[in-house]
Amino acid sequence: MSARAAFALLALPCLAGAAGAQHTEVPRTLAPAEGRVALVKGLDWLVAHQNEDGSWATGVLDGLLELGFSIETFYSWQVAANGLACMALLHAPETPARRQALERGLDWLGKTRVPQRGSDWDIDFVWAGLYGFVAVTEVAMDPRFQGGEWPARLAKIGQHYLAILEQNQAPSGGWGYYDDPIYSRRPKWATSFSTATVLPALRDAEALGWVEDVRLRERGVEYVERCALPNGAYAYDLSPIPWLGGDSINQVQGSLSRIQACNWALFSLGRPKVTVAKLREGLEQFFEHHRFLDVAYMDPVPHEAYYYNSGYFYLFGHYYAAKVIELLPPEEREGWHARLRPHLVKVMRAEGWSSDFLTSAYMQVAGTAYSVLALDLGLPPEPEPVEKVKR
After folding, report:
1. Could you tell me where the DSSP H helices lie in the chain?
2. Total domain count for the chain?
3. Domain with 225 in it: what CATH number?
């Protein structure tokens, strides 16, 4: 690809905006150099938009398109987005500014109050439990955070978010974010994809000594496996008779992002039914039917698009697709990442932030974090030394 074409691709978000990713022409592949440019833009945006107290975004409703949710839910989404932002900074090439932002973000995650259930049906605070726990666990596993007071601090923070998971695992074994009548203290509904996000972190937390009950993870694994369908998709949620007719969300075209998250989680935990061949198959489906994610991109009405896709499936799915790629043999990875990068760069705004659903502050932070995480996974080490933090 020519330098002019690469520059044009990086400039596309200025023109795309809310017009929808389906209208953006992109090359089939994008080289690591262009991916690194986008990565730096995203990281710079995260560092520049951190609040003075170490948090990102706000915990209140800041638009009219999400009226009807519990007041507590907006704070919960902020906490979840902050977990993702910390993950993005943790895995990025380290600089003093990024390290400082990461430590400030972790400090806020530890000091802020633990989110609570917002109402009888709205239990979106589980998202704070999921990504808060994943973020802190990943930091605790990082060699840079093994000394001093970090292990004890991280263990304490991890317990805050683990408690949400322990108290809200559905009887079926998974985690969800709504409840159905008759409402109960322990919710009864779960989804395959939200459950998948936390399973490898639970295994790591067991190794850290944070989790004593291994059945917490095992029940979640069993739930996701039971959601697997013969067509290669994963059911949105577990049902005795999954809906598969017509343009069901449980068709492959409606499961593109769930396939990546669930395959990644199950393969990472050594489950025999998810093989390397199945990982490849899921990725091929992702790119073959990618247009259905494009059409849903930035649609403010959930599940309005074909196969009931929602805009917020987009960046979530690209992040877990990047994680799946990293599970393939090393010689295969760059080819897949090169195909993924154009679809990340094309939705990045000129300022460096990304969103796929709304422009709410928490969505900007979460979307940018997903994008940064996905881009970073596919890049080789820095061609030039990055300024390291001196300790």
Report:
1. 3-16, 32-48, 71-91, 96-111, 125-141, 150-168, 192-208, 215-227, 256-268, 276-288, 291-296, 314-325, 330-345, 361-377
2. 1
3. 1.50.10.20
